[in-house]
Amino acid sequence: MKTPETSRLFTRWRNPANGVESLILTERPAPVQKSFYFTNRSFTDDGRFLWVCCMFLPRGARQVMPVFGVVDFERDEFRVYHETQASSASPMVDPRTGDLYWISGLDLWKRGPQPEDEAVLVNSFPAEVAKRRPPERIATHLTISADGKSVNIDARFDNETYLGDMPLDGSPVRIWQTVNGFYDHGLFSPTDRDLQMFAHEYWAEHIAEPFDHDLPYHRLWLIRRGEKARPILKQPVSHSGHEWWDPDGKHVWYVHYGVAIKKVDIATGLEQPIWKGSLAHAYSDHNGRYLVTDMMADPVVSDCHVAFRDTVTGKEVEIVNRPPLAKGLIQCGHLHPHPQFCQNDRYICHTTTVYDRVDLALVSTDDLKARTQ
Fold first, then answer.
1. How far apart are CA 349 and CA 284, in angstroms?
2. Rounded CA gap, 370 and 368, in Å?
3. Which residues are CB-contacts of 209 (< 8 A; sequence separation ≥ 6)?
4. Whether pTM exceeds 0.85
5. How far is the C-alpha of 57 from the C-alpha of 332, rounded, in Å?
6. Distance between CA atoms of residues 68 and 55, nearest Å
7. For 319-324, which contacts have Cβ atoms below 8 Å and span 24 or more sequence positions?
8. Cα–Cα distance between 181 and 207 in angstroms, integer?
9. Contact present, 168 and 150 (Cβ < 8 Å)
10. 47-104, pLDDT tens digit by residue?
11. 132-155 residues labelled b (16+ CB within 10 A) or e (exposed)
């Protein structure tokens, strides 16, 4: 089986500032090819399948519905499946099987990675709850429960958000709580099937007036099946976001904008700053020693600036640092690097623009670890 280093589908690119090597997916059946959101790994644990978000859009366009393609390292092929069109940025890959799950309208779909596989309807959000209202989303980013039997939902219609889960066996959707306001980014606990984290996007409720980013509020929330949601932190903080679970299920991480990446004990609400600075998105390896982050001065016009840090030695290394894409080049909305550890922490996957277009990149963590010892 091929690897990203030996596949004909990838090209080596070196950061001219320090020689750090990225592997760019340069087989390009789509005008835009990007990584998944940082909380959703798209590389299977066995290293065979890597799913890619593909967009077919004309020059000057910014928003289109994505479809998904898969790199098959055994066949050394990149196949795009146009029947996987999603209505939101919700894809999830089962890292054991390579199956892709996505949302279209009210429906949850699944497709295997092989050419002979077919799309299968898994479940649907109840029409009697939707009440003919078009969904803003059914799930911001799908995650699977610790017992492997459900995916999370944070379905939003008008000003109502329905928090709960959608069983993978097609049985009825379970709504844990309905809340008024802008709530999203639900994530199942990796260890507890009855626990989810989600976010209150308080800033999004102030579109009509400038939002004071220094105003403290509770963004991070937990909800346990059968109970009411509660905030994670003891005290509200100024504008924050981009949270993820630690694999131990006892901690969550989040980016406190302009302050630091922080790690929080969900039992006590106590938080510890780990990487100080003005960072945007971040992710940790399974042991919590290594972090990867992207940084951008203006999230609307996104830089491709990604860095890696060893929290034990305190050393950092730049992976890539490129300015935003020039106007007139084919691009897409929400063009952030969204770096993540994947394939058992062997690689970092992110979206890059080093070739003046939107590409998926992989970076070996072995070299980054050696540089930060």
1. 12
2. 5
3. none
4. yes
5. 8
6. 8
7. 319/15, 319/20, 319/22, 319/292, 319/348, 319/350, 319/363, 319/368, 320/15, 320/20, 320/22, 320/352, 320/354, 320/361, 321/15, 321/17, 322/352, 322/353, 322/354, 324/353
8. 13
9. yes
10. 999 999 999 987 777 778 899 999 999 999 999 999 999 987 679 999 999 999 999 9
11. eeebbbbbbbbbbbbeeebbbbbb
What are the tokens at 100? 């892709």
The Cα 111–Cα 84 span in angstroms is 8
